Amino acid sequence: MSEDNHQIVLAEIPQGKLAPEHFKSAVAARPTPGDGEVLLKVLYVSLDAANRAWMQGATYRSALTAGDVMAGGSLAEVVESRSPALAPGDLVFADTGWQTWAVAPARRLAKLPRMEPLTHLLSVYGVAGLTAYFGLLECGKPRPGETVVVSAAAGAVGSIVGQIAKIKGCRTVGIAGGAAKWALLTDELGFDAAVDYKAGDTRRALRAACPDGIDVYFDNVGGDIFEACLFNMANHGRIACCGAVSQYDGAAPRAGPRGVPGLIVTKRLVLTGFIVSDFDDKRQAALADLKSWVESGQLRVREDVLEGLESLPGALVGLLAGENIGKRMVKVA
Fold first, then answer.
1. Closest CA to 326 of 117, 19, 134
2. All structural domains of the chain with their residue ranges
């Protein structure tokens, strides 16, 4: 067993767009677990737009500072345990950061089932799938026959949101960038229509795709696309606010559109922000639904798996630029 712990450190907080040079490699000694702790071998690291938001300040977790091991969740294997709750060989999801080894308190971890492919534990049965499930069904509350629009629709969360909406009997419209993603949504994932935000006037394209308005909008991006959807909402529409990736990387966002409070009132809109842990008490029921849909073929899983710890900086930069289709992760071991 290697005594070295290879790490990726956030060398400096970016003032503009994130780039690979904002990170550096480091080597530390492999940590040793104390009482009640486990030693984890990192298998796959999850890449999420929120990784970039953590560099801007405190969110639902502490802000990152220069010199920190880059934060991130991972699928990891217990190698050594000093707790009766977990044994060597157990799989867990943990906030290990970008490194090959980590120590964590066993009480904060839950054993995961072994399955093939293991990557599904980070995608459809992980934070991405649960975020899609709860954000749409608990916050968006779609009803059969309604029109559901989702942004970043070819990404980890959006690709699942649209498919769940179809399973629930809704008309589904995805917003994504580029012809390849447009075709993926309609030809492979079963969306009824797609809007290419890179092709021109998104607000007009949405009006054409949703002539009766948008009943539920699942927002992953914020910014101009959020604004375009907002002005195309139907009366009594619901907006599930999941993320704002368009505002995470680069200069501070411009001021929002004027007249929004009046629009919310006149259309009687409901905007709900959430994080996946808000629904921990419903987790097992959600996983049971997701598993049944995957096994029946109603829900297709797209994953984007890269190789090697050293590829993490470029993988995150690429995710922020919209390179990925489906859930992006990096295989470390």
1. 117
2. 4-123+303-331, 127-277
| CA pair distance 302, 324, nearest whole angstrom | 10
* pLDDT for res 281: 96
| CA atoms of 182 and 15, how far apart (whole Å) | 32
Q: Which residues of the chain have pLDDT under 70?
A: 1, 250-259
CB-neighbour burial class of residue 108 (10 A; exposed 0-12, middle 13-18, buried 19+): exposed
Q: What share of the chain is helix, strand, coil (3-state, %, to 5)?
A: 30, 25, 40
Burial class (CB in 10 A: 0-12, 13-18, 19+), 201: exposed
Rounded to whole angstroms, what are the CA distances from 156 to 48, 82, 126, 127, 175?
9, 35, 10, 9, 13
Q: Which two tokens stand for residue 212?
A: 């009766």
Candidates 162, 142, 152; CA nearest to 225 is 152
| 183 contact partners, CB below 8 Å, separation of at least 6 | none
C-alpha distances (whole Å) from 85 to each of 35, 77, 80 are 12, 14, 12
Q: What is the CATH number of domain 4-123+303-331?
A: 3.90.180.10
**Fold exhibited by the domain 127-277:** Rossmann fold (3.40.50)
pLDDT tens readout for residues 148-180: 999 999 999 999 999 999 999 999 999 999 999
Chain segment 173-200, per-residue pLDDT in tens = 999 999 999 899 999 999 999 999 999 8
